[in-house]
Amino acid sequence: MDKKSVKYLVFDIESVPDARLIRMVKYPGEDIDDAQAVRNFQDEVLANSQGVSSFIPVTFQYPVAICVAKVAEDFTLGEMVSLDFPRFRPAEMTRLFWDGVENNYSEASLVSFNGRGFDVPLLELMAYRYGVPIKRHLKDKFGARYRFGTRHIDLHDWLSNFNAIKMQGGLNLLAKVLGKPGKMGTTGDEVYSLFVEGKSGQINDYCTHDVLDTYFVFLRTRVMTGEISRDREQEIVRKTKKFLEDNVSQTPAYAKYLKNWGDWEPWP
User: Fold this and answer.
1) How far is it, in rounded angstroms, from Cα 63 to Cα 129?
2) CA torsion angle for 131, 15, 113, 73 (degrees, to 10)?
3) Helix axes 19-26, 34-48, angle to 10 degrees
4) Threshold 0.90, pTM exceeds
5) Closest by alpha carbon to 76, among 188, 208, 243?
6) From first to last of its 268 residues, what are the pLDDT tens digits of the chain?
7) Measured distance CA(64)–CA(90) in Å, rounded
8) d(CA 30, CA 109)
9) Can you name the residues that pair with 65 across neighbouring β-strands?
10) Calpha distance 65→144 (Å, rounded)
11) Which letter does DSSP use for residue 3 in this model?
């Protein structure tokens, strides 16, 4: 896909707790290994949230998968990539992401689900960690950091009326409303366990599926804004399914998504 024709970068990140950093910051001097440090912190987070979640804060995480869908101005899907596949090195994924945003696709808008609340701050912290320049991203006053602009369309923020409500059910709910798979046996809080087991490929597949769900939710929001008609949206959805079918041999993650594919059938 020609770089100039890319107008939207729909992306998602999977991350894991940074055990070394947790030991250094939370438990300095304690004789515990990485696994115990993570468990201790998870227990602390769970207790502080009154049993709601054990998910460790973004400041103590690093990426293990970053997937990006390159979308044209007419909202058709042109290409999907997994950064630094199959090695998934955090420093290289960070470099590749910001190189795309700053240079190769500098005119494209970011599209995410809760990217303002997690993904972008994480990538900014990784730019800090690895010394990656993100000058345009930081300098542009009304750019991707501006909450109410179009340089970063955070669908979670947008659909929740900028957090006027709690988007209970999240991306999974929104995808299933459209007949799309949503969660298929793996959830975000299982990523660390998969990582410990060395299942990087499965994590990347999960990330790919989330990007596809995000893309279809993005299409429906563009119907809401009047940028495309409902008929045009459904035409793009059919073309995207054909794209997945044509590329399933190169990207096996598409097979599971297609197996759980459903068409939009509104109710009641």
Assistant:
1) 12
2) 60
3) 70
4) yes
5) 243
6) 899 999 999 999 999 999 999 999 999 999 999 999 999 999 999 999 999 899 999 999 999 999 999 999 999 999 999 999 999 999 999 999 999 999 999 999 999 999 999 999 999 999 999 999 999 999 988 788 899 989 999 999 999 999 999 999 999 999 999 999 999 987 777 899 999 999 999 999 999 999 999 999 999 999 999 999 999 999 999 999 999 999 999 999 999 999 999 999 999 9
7) 6
8) 45
9) 14
10) 21
11) G
Q: What is the 3-state secondary structure (H, E, C) of 29-84?
A: CCCCCHHHHHHHHHHHHHHHCCCCCCCCCHHHEEEEEEEEEEEECCCCEEEEEECC
Nearest to 68 by CA among 112, 33, 128: 112
Residue with tokens 């994480």: 122
At 17 the three-state DSSP class reads strand
- 14 strand-pairing partners: 65
Is residue 115 exposed (0-12), middle (13-18) or buried (19+ Cβ within 10 Å)?
A: buried
